[in-house]
Amino acid sequence: MSTATIYSHLSREELVARLAALEPASDEQPQPKPPQPTAESSSSGAGAGVGVSASSSSGAGSSSKRIRKVKPAKPFNFASHPTRHIALLVAYHGWPYSGLAIQSDRTESDELIPTVEAELLKALEKTRLVEAGKGFEGCGYSRCGRTDRGVSGEGQVVDLWVRSNRKDADGGAELVSWRAPTEAKPTLEEVGEVSDEASVSASASASTSERPKKPLPPSPAIEFPYPRLLNVPTLQIRLPSPTRSVVPPLDLELMQQGADLLVGEHDFRNFCKLDGSKQIENHSRRVVKAYFEHVDGMIIFNLIGTAFLWHQVRHVIGVLFLVGSKLEQPSLVSSLLDVENYPSKPQYQMGDPLPLTLHECGYEPGLDWRYGGYDGTWSDLPPEQQESVRQHALGGSESLERDLESMRQEAEIRTWQIGGALRTLRSTLGSGQTATASTSTVYPTGGGQVVITGKYRPVLERPRGETPDEVNRKWREKGGKARKGLE
């Protein structure tokens, strides 16, 4: 009879008693020793390595309490797992964060400055999808673009190498971006988890498993459900609808005329914020489309381009607000794009970051986005399996959709409640808009914010800042000290 058969009917308590009876007896009691920093235990006494004894007093007749030894956590060997290159579509609310990009500076609590990428890295390390302590450099991370402090995103795309659940045996090696482990997984004996007796039992069990079995039907290829594992805390400009109270009313036709002048490849140095630490010499960018549309009772300004400079979109909408308020002509856009006559930017207010949303990152050809873990194609499945696999592919996305819909309804209720307070204020004290508009120049900057000033000074008559060459030269002359602060 095999060893496995002898002990297979015993309970856990019976097995522990059997092991204690087999231990060699000792007449000497082990002397108390200070805790050792290693994970190894002495074998000089009965029950050594199973637990430790603690005494509440040192006198005669003191009682001892048996404490279960807590095993240290097993080290996670990331190199023994396969990896895979994937793209993630990320949506986030930008209000609580200091921008998208991870910041290397530390706060007093030695925590990463709150950014979207810092939260993403925490989730990746917690789920062991990337190797802890290596940062984004260790997983080949890159992103499609970046957003600044307070800016939200609906369609940010990042790509990186992550741990994969696919194996060579289930077709993982046939995937375009899949890598086999760089180190072999240690056996149970190598990590000290199996005794000699257990090894014998495992061998006996393995020998019996060599009997031919009925082949199982092939199961669908399953990958880690990356979006479900990583779900952590939420270019499109939303403008107030003309049907709502706006000070002053915006002329969308004039704004569209100004937006049309943005299309094409231009030097946008006068539509951005300069940063000498980046040493950017080429400020030429291409705008593909710039147009307004009505969506859900809001007016949306869509700006589509191949790339954007720092705060470029906020400067664009700031200028268009001036045009829509009839304080500037649409030709102001052409003048600011004429860097021969205007080599440096005049001073003007850029748009508020709150309405700004990165809406989508485009790829040719398009990417196949998934939420659950199914990693195959529909044509590979027999019809009877397609429904069950469809549910696995969705992987709880219906629940996420319900959560987002609940958030949307909550936001609408909050808006209605704030509107009630505003209605009460206006009915009690009056709106005050007529007096303000008649004595001052008022124009919006987005996010419900307005600028109130006296006599308006045209943008092209205002003082100008430094040229990009001057900003870069001064930064180099100061020893190349990196710009401090957050974006």
Automatic annotation (TrEMBL):
Q: Which family does it belong to?
A: Belongs to the tRNA pseudouridine synthase TruA family.
Documented EC number(s): 5.4.99.12
Keywords, sorted A to Z? Isomerase, tRNA processing
Basic and acidic residues composition-biased segments: 458-487
**Sequence segments annotated as region (Disordered):** 20-68, 173-220, 454-487
Q: Which InterPro entries match?
A: PsdUridine_synth_cat_dom_sf (IPR020103), PsdUridine_synth_TruA (IPR001406), PsdUridine_synth_TruA_a/b_dom (IPR020097), PsdUridine_synth_TruA_C (IPR020095), TruA/RsuA/RluB/E/F_N (IPR020094)
What Pfam family is a match for this entry? PseudoU_synth_1
The biological process GO terms on file are: mRNA pseudouridine synthesis; tRNA pseudouridine synthesis
This protein's GO CC annotations:
cytoplasm; nucleus
| Top-level taxon in the UniProt lineage | Eukaryota
Record-level Gene Ontology MF annotations: RNA binding; tRNA pseudouridine(38-40) synthase activity
Protein's organism? Saitozyma podzolica
Give the signal peptide, or none. none
From start to end residue, where is composition biased (Low complexity)?
41-64, 197-209
Catalysed reactions listed for this entry: uridine(38/39/40) in tRNA = pseudouridine(38/39/40) in tRNA
Residue ranges constituting the Pseudouridine synthase I TruA alpha/beta domain according to the UniProt record:
260-364
Annotated protein name in UniProt: tRNA pseudouridine synthase
